Amino acid sequence: MTTLITRRRVLQTGVAAAALVGLSQTGWAAGPLVKLRIMETTDLHVNVFPYDYYRDAPDDSVGLARTATLVKAARAEAKNSLLFDNGDIIQGSPLGDYVAYRKGMKKGDVHPIVAAMNTLNYDAGTLGNHEFNYGLEFLQNAMGEAKFPLVCANAVKANGEPLIKPWLILDREVTDESGAKHKLKVGVIGFVPPQIVQWDKANLDGKVTTIDIVDAANKYVPEMKKAGADIIVALSHTGIAGGERKGGEENAALHLAKVDGIDAILTGHQHFVFPGGKEFNNIPGVDVQKGTLHGKPAVMAGFWGSHLGLIDLDLVKEGDGWKVADFRTEARSIYDRVDRKVVAKVGSEAGVVAAVQADHDATLKYVREPVGKTAVPIHSYYSLVSDDASVKLVADAQAWYVADQLKASAFKDLPILSAAAPFKAGGRGGPNYFTEIKPGPLAIKDMADIYIYPNTIRVVKITGAQVREWLERSAGIYNQIDPAKGGEQDLINAKFPAYNFDVIAGVQYKIDPTQASRYDNDGKLVNPDAHRIKDLTYNGKPVADDQQFLVVTNNYRAGGGGNFPGADGSTIVFEAPDLTRDAIMRYIVEKKEVAPKADGSWSLAVPAGVTMTFTTGPNAANYQPAGIKVEKMGDAPEGFVKYKIVN
Questions:
Q1: What are the backbone angles phi and psi of residue 115, rounded to the nearest 5°?
Q2: What CA–CA distance (Å, rounded) separates 296 from 294?
Q3: pLDDT at 136 over 50
Q4: Taking phi first (over 0 means left), then psi (-120 to 50 degrees means alpha), and beta for anything else, what does residue 376 get?
Q5: What is the DSSP letter of 411?
Q6: CB-side exposure of 106: number of CA atoms within 13 Å?
Q7: How far apart are the first and last CA of the chain?
Q8: Strand ranges, E, within 351-455
Q9: What would the mean pLDDT of 461-481 be, rounded to a whole number?
Q10: DSSP class of 498
């Protein structure tokens, strides 16, 4: 049995000697030693420039133009290197919206993110779930001019054929530490969350299906070995999560690491950083410091170009092939945070900027086009702790749109409720990741600021009991507060994504965080006797379990995204052709001026004797939340500010 010698960071001097010392313990010291650097970008989401189109201001924490500078430096440090992308590239910023909805994408056109990536000589990439948001034809056209191949092993056409090539072998010439040349066959396989068939049902139904990530790996990895792969790198657009494998997991990287034959795992999808990242602490099989999953090297390079993932492999000759003898992992950031401010560590790569400059300029013009006015500020700084105007605007626009669409339908007499969530609420996005729009003109960029995803509107027909359970699932965003313990207690469950905190407008209710959550973060019922939702009423009367409602939501939620009771695809009664964002824009154009106001439809129960705390952005000090009293306590890590809720 060999011993892995694992270090966190590449040593700039003496690394060959150190590696050979380690290799002498394995019995491989006499053979040639090849150092291979594997680099990863992931979840770029059309962030090329260091610019926040929502705020219409520069942003040193994002942008492939900055990551490209890290790529250039990382290549200069290594004799042998490969660059891969891990998916989610063509959707996710107003630059992507501009291409999809204004400029268009026909065969032969070069998508701006692809133009940028083509300057960096990627070796291969895989598909992310957001690649399917605009349909298969758009995806094909968008990636058609990529100068690098794509692989995905678990997306399958209706006829049973792979959607794209499941794997490939890169034949590369590498240089060992003595200067000699060798042939190396690098196997590359890709994976996407199997849930794409739910999340983008309208685009994929009857055209594409998926298989479990681990099952796909077990099918294809032996083929890759038979084809001569010396090492295998998994480009897995899937995150890291613990628990027993049941099959069909969205975040399956840890299970994937158990597949024999895979040597290195590139992860993503969760928008976290690995190695490092407190989100992965205390998960059996995960070494947060060394950057390993069941002992195998892995990285997750943040999101929007924030980091470059690095896995450095020491390869030794074994027979006619090569074996991993040692490795190091790292996630390099494009910025530091100094005195609570983002400070750029690198500048932009000129070639990347030049490749996208025209589309960037056109996007700025596009997002600045006015559509209406707001009489009041619209922000999301307190959206996780109180009824919120930014969420209310979305809910109102959705209900307005559906009421018009269904006025002559068989459902016209059913009450319409509207579910919406605060998408920009800090969290992993950082202290500036909040909606903030001042009174005055509303532009297209503001529509994307209020509603960041390209979702379409869906309507589900459910019962009062299902409405209650939907809200119970949503209330999992709160940690359980213990009044007996007293003192300061964190209110927000940091592992619960804000986009799963649905508020349902049209009913009134309270949330009691002293109760245990009925559902875990994945939507599984874990505490059947717990009830956080209190005093649920409609028009002043208690909601009956058998009462019928229409709930306006989006295609992601209605199709099963987030595993919400009453929303599994079977309850959909209306599928709108329009984006939710377009419905909001139509609503504002129709009204000419809006003044969204939180109406107290929901509130938090605040127990005595407990200081419930939460973090938000620094600009929250400019506003007061509706229906709840808060006080600033002081600064929090990473540029956030801590507040407490006052009785």
A1: -60, -40
A2: 6
A3: yes
A4: beta
A5: T
A6: 2
A7: 61
A8: 370-374, 378-379, 416-420, 436-437, 440-443
A9: 98
A10: G
More reliable by pLDDT, 337 or 335: 335
H or E stretch covering 199: helix 196-199
pLDDT at position 577: 67
**Across residues 496-516, what is the average pLDDT?**
97
* Cα–Cα distance for residue pair 105/401, rounded to 1 Å: 28
pLDDT of residue 647: 82
Two tokens, residue 184: 């190396």
What six digits make up the tokens of 470? 């939907």
Here the tokens at position 327 are: 């490795």
CA distance 600 to 176: 67
Using alpha carbons, select from 149, 128, 145, 20 the residue that is nearest to residue 84.
149
Q: What is the pLDDT of residue 158?
A: 94
Left if phi > 0, otherwise alpha if psi is -120 to 50, otherwise beta: which for 269?
left
Rounded distance between C-alpha atoms, residue 407 and residue 515, angstroms: 40
- What mean pLDDT comes out for the span 525-532? 97
- For residue 96, the model assigns a pLDDT of 93
Tokens (6 digits) for 312? 């450095």
What is the pTM assigned to this prediction? 0.77
| pLDDT (0 to 100) of residue 19 | 34
Tell me how far apart the alpha carbons of residues 563 and 643 are, in angstroms, rounded to a whole number: 31
Least confident of 5-14, 216-225, 385-394: 5-14
Structure-block tokens of residue 144: 């058609």
- Token pair 């300061």 is found at 488
pLDDT category at 408 given cuts 50, 70, 90 is: confident
Q: Is the pLDDT of residue 30 over 80?
A: no
Look at the alpha carbons of 221, 222, 227, 228 in this order and tell me if their dihedral is positive or negative. positive
State yes or no: pLDDT of 73 exceeds 60. yes
Residue 116, H or E segment: helix 112-118
Mean pLDDT of 98-107: 94
Backbone dihedral angles phi then psi of residue 336, each to the nearest 5 degrees:
-115, 165
Beta-carbon contacts of 346 under 8 Å, excluding residues fewer than 6 positions away, are 66, 69, 70, 73, 334
Helices of type H across 386-435: 389-405
For the chain, how many residues are written?
A: 647
Question: Inter-axis angle of helices 350-367 and 64-77, to 10 degrees?
Answer: 170
Q: Does 275 sit behind a cis peptide bond, omega within 30 degrees of 0 on the bond before it?
A: yes
Encoded amino acid at 54, one letter: Y
Q: What angle do CA 67, 69, 73 make, to 5 degrees?
A: 115
The region, left, alpha or beta by phi > 0 then psi within -120 to 50, assigned to residue 226 is alpha
**Tokens 């154009």, residue?**
589
Question: What pLDDT score does 599 carry?
Answer: 86
User: Which of the four pLDDT bands, split at 50, 70 and 90, describes residue 552?
Assistant: very high
- Show the domains of the chain with their CATH numbers: 5-361 (3.60.21.10), 369-646 (3.90.780.10)
